[in-house]
Design brief:
The protein is an alpha+beta fold and about 350 residues long. Helix content is about 30%, strand content about 20%. It is globular, with a radius of gyration of 22 Å.
Length: about 350
C-alpha cells in the first residue's frame, strides 16, 4: 500500500486514521477481498503526520524511548505542545496489533487523571498505530544515574503523585501490573507566561499496555518487570489482585530509599528479601514498606491510600515480624489486622 493512500478500513473511533499531509481527507473504501499484507512504516524526523481524529498535525522528532510493545518518538503539534508518539511494534498480525492499540487507548481514556500520562490523540497512519501522549522529561529510572539525585529526598514527592494515580486506576477496577522506575515519569508543568521555563515538576504513571480489569488478573497470564510472590507461587502466597500494584510500588520506594535500582531473583522474592531490606530502613519507611512488601497477598497493605497514610505516620514502627497482616478491603479503605498462620 502506498504512502499516499492510508486505509481507514475497520477501525472504530476514537482510534481513527490519519492522512498524509499532501492528500487531506483521502480515504480508501473497505474492500471485501482479502487485504494485502500490511507492514509498519516508522516515522522519520521532520515528517508531518495529520490525524483525522483531531485534525491535529504532528512534526515528528527523534526516537526517545522504546518498550516491549512500542517505540516512542518526540513530536510537536500545531499548538507547540511537546508530545510523545508511541508507535506500536508489529509483534503480531495487523488485526492483533490494532486490537492491542485500541485496548490500551480505552484504558488511557478510562483513567484520565493528573498523575497518569495524558492521552492527546490516537490514529492509524500507513498501517501503523500511533498513540500520542504528553511528553515527560525522563523516567524515574533515568534519575538514578544523575549525580545530584538523592532518592530518600524524592520518595515522598514521587509517592504522593504515584499513589494518587494507583488509587484512581484501582477505583476504575484496573490493575496496572507493571509499575516500575521505567514506567513512572517526571514531567514539568509549563509556565505559559514564559514558555522557556518549567514551572513545577510532577510525577506520572504511564504505560498501561498490560493493565487488566480486576476480574481478568491471574497468575498464568501476568507479565511485568519483576513478578511478585503471588505470581511466582499463587498456591503459597495467594491469588494476584490489585495488591500486585502495591507490591510494585513498595519495590520502587525501596529503590528510592537506596538511591539505586535493585534487582531480585524469583528465589529472593519468594524468600522475602525486599521486605527484609525494608525493615532496615528508618521510620516510617520501614513500617510502610515492610507492609507493602509482604509476600502473602492477604497480609499486605490493602490500598494505595493506606500506603500513603503509612508513609506519613511518624509514630509507626515495626518489630520485624509479619504479625500485622491486613484484611483485604476495597481500594481507598483501611485494612484490619489479623493473625498470620
Amino acid at each position: 500500500m502506498s504512502e499516499s493512500t492510508p486505509t481507514s478500513a475497520a477501525i472504530p473511533e476514537p482510534l481513527a486514521n490519519s492522512v498524509a499531509p499532501d492528500a487531506p481527507g483521502e480515504v480508501l473504501a473497505t474492500q471485501s477481498a482479502e487485504p494485502p499484507t500490511k507492514s509498519v512504516t516508522e516515522p522519520t524526523p521532520g515528517e508531518i503526520i495529520t490525524s483525522e481524529a483531531t485534525n491535529n498535525s504532528y512534526t515528528m522528532g527523534e526516537k526517545i524511548g522504546e518498550g516491549y510493545f512500542g517505540v516512542v518518538y518526540g513530536c510537536v503539534d500545531v499548538w507547540n505542545n511537546e508530545l510523545a508518539a508511541k508507535v506500536m511494534k508489529p509483534l503480531q498480525s495487523y488485526e492483533e496489533v490494532k486490537a492491542s492499540a485500541e485496548a490500551e487507548l480505552q484504558k488511557l481514556f478510562a483513567v484520565r487523571h493528573p498523575f497518569v500520562t495524558y492521552v492527546y490523540d490516537a490514529f492509524e497512519y500507513r498501517d501503523t498505530f500511533y498513540i500520542v501522549t504528553e511528553r515527560c522529561i525522563c523516567s524515574v529510572s533515568d534519575l538514578f544515574s544523575q549525580e545530584w539525585f538523592t532518592g530518600p529526598n524524592w520518595t515522598k514527592p514521587i509517592a504522593r503523585c504515584l499513589l494518587q494515580a494507583v488509587h484512581f486506576i484501582h477505583l476504575a477496577k484496573l490493575v496496572h501490573q507493571d509499575i516500575h522506575a521505567g514506567n513512572v515519569f517526571a514531567a514539568f508543568a509549563r509556565d505559559e507566561s514564559n514558555s522557556a521555563e518549567a514551572a513545577a515538576i510532577q510525577f506520572k504513571l504511564g504505560d498501561l499496555g498490560v493493565a487488566k480489569l480486576f476480574s481478568e488478573v491471574d497468575a498464568a497470564h501476568t507479565r511485568g518487570w519483576m513478578l511478585p510472590p503471588e505470581v511466582i507461587d499463587s498456591s503459597e502466597f495467594g491469588r494476584p489482585d490489585h495488591r500486585t500494584d502495591i507490591y510494585h510500588c513498595g519495590l520502587l520506594f525501596l529503590q528510592l530509599a537506596h538511591s539505586r535500582e535493585l534487582r531480585f531473583t524469583p528465589e529472593e522474592i519468594r524468600n522475602g528479601k525486599p521486605r527484609e531490606m525494608a525493615r532496615e530502613l528508618p521510620a516510617p519507611l520501614n513500617f510502610a514498606l515492610e507492609k507493602a512488601l509482604r509476600r502473602h497477598v492477604s497480609f499486605r497493605t490493602a490500598s494505595a491510600m493506606e500506603l500513603w497514610r503509612d508513609l506519613n505516620s511518624p509514630e509507626s514502627t515495626t518489630d520485624g515480624t509479619e504479625n500485622q497482616p491486613q484484611v483485604a478491603g476495597p481500594p481507598g479503605t483501611l485494612s484490619g489486622p489479623v493473625v498470620e498462620p
